[in-house]
Design a protein that fits this description.
CATH topology: TIM Barrel
Structural class: alpha/beta
Number of helices: 11
Helix content: 25-40%
Shape: globular
CATH architecture: Alpha-Beta Barrel
Radius of gyration: 20 Å
CATH superfamily: Aldolase class I
Largest sheet: 10 strands, mixed
Amino acid sequence: MAGFPQLRLRRLRRTERLRALVRENRVDAGDLVYPIFVVEGKGIKQEISSMPSIFRFSPDQLDAEIEEVAGLKIPAVLLFGIPEQKDELGSSAYAPEGVVQQAVRRIKKSAPQLLVITDVCLCEYTSHGHCGVVVGDQIDNDQTLPLLAKTALSHAEAGADIVAPSDMMDGRVKAIRESLDKDGFQQIPILSYAAKYASAFYGPFREAAESAPQFGDRRSYQMDPPNIREALREIEQDINEGADIVMVKPALAYLDVIRQARNAFNCPLAAYNVSGEYAMVKAAVKQGLMEERRAVMEILTAIKRAGADIIISYHAKDVARWLQSA
């Protein structure tokens, strides 16, 4: 190949139109999923102190938020529930009139075209804050599976379009798939948090969802951050059990995992741009250390470039606005 001066790679960077013409990766509003926190009660809209511009809503306060999300052409929301009552078995998670079930029905009535994804886990609903049944000082994997299956089924019955188990119990996808199929919900896809790491970047979420564990931590079931081959095994297992979409979480510190998953598997791949990643950007912007739009678009483009098809992000509404105004 000819070298410099015949080869001038800067030629195609000279103007924005040239850069756009040869751009290899683009973030689109259609790639995004917006997380929403719903809390039991009425008349509630509470800003989360560690996550500026993110709120907890009671179901009756969702309409304006859902109208805005749908108007921005964001195709899906991901619901997390905060109940009034918690117990050892997280029974509010699978109650027919649980807060997520109420929210699903309201959203599907007001914006039927919007995809509603529900987080399937017990941590927000248990008195101890763990993602499964506690026996002694251990999280019992196998006793947890039927409760996760009941939760997913109750979400499907309420009208959820996709269920998303995030607990990291072994065998949960199989248990949920069998339960859904048995009760006539063969058409409901499973988005599995397949490679969910025990990350320091979840701190603001635990405030938002009131889900911090009351003892110990989640390292016995969430993945060890140094491991990548194990992540590929987790993803492969979930696909074999019936997952339709798989996820890597967090996103920004795990771009290499996203890339390896993209290379290894041919199913849709999601990545979660988590609360700590969001909060860091907001804090830096508040201090005048970076330009928010450029920083956010660079982060989300990196996630897309690494191989994610779907990006779950608290920045989703801002990104969709920026894209509309571009």
